[in-house]
Specification:
The chain is built from no helices and eleven strands. With 126 residues, the chain is an all-beta fold. The strands form two sheets. Strands 2, 4, 5, 6, 9, 10 and 11 form a seven-stranded mixed β-sheet that branches. Strand 4 and strand 5 form a beta hairpin. The termini are far apart. 34% of the residues are buried.
């Protein structure tokens, strides 16, 4: 049973940056994607970014975060990261780490995730 522990959320002003971390309790197989999802109040959970660690670590991003967010994985630390820059108020949400996920940020892709982190709050406000 893989356990995912997230950290790095918080409050930041628009234009600011945060880095989220997701430490896995054990080695996570690379045959599936890992990713980050988010859920704002009153909205459905949505895909933010995924990474497929085989073959060079191909990544997918939601259009809303392209060019601002970067997902990457540190194999030595079994840790997934999400670097978030140029944050906007609409990025405010609870962010969840996911393992054994589809390599997709399409609507409802969150339904196919096997393991979830506990979630970490990100608030972007002036």
């Amino acid at each position: 049973q893989v356990q995912l522990v997230e950290s790095g959320g918080g409050s930041v002003q628009p234009g600011g940056s945060l880095r989220l971390s997701c430490a896995a309790s054990e080695y996570v197989g690379s045959e599936h994607c890992m990713g980050w999802f988010r859920q704002a109040p009153g909205k459905e959970r949505e895909g933010v970014a995924t990474i497929y660690r085989r073959g060079g670590g191909s990544t997918l991003y939601a259009d809303s975060v392209k060019g601002r967010f970067t997902i990457y994985y540190d194999n030595a630390k079994n840790t997934l990261y999400l670097e978030m820059n140029s944050l906007k108020p609409e990025d405010t949400a609870v962010y969840y780490c996911a393992a054994e996920a589809l390599c997709s940020v399409a609507p409802n892709s969150w339904k196919w995730v096997k393991y979830w982190g506990q979630g970490t709050q990100v608030t972007v406000s002036s």
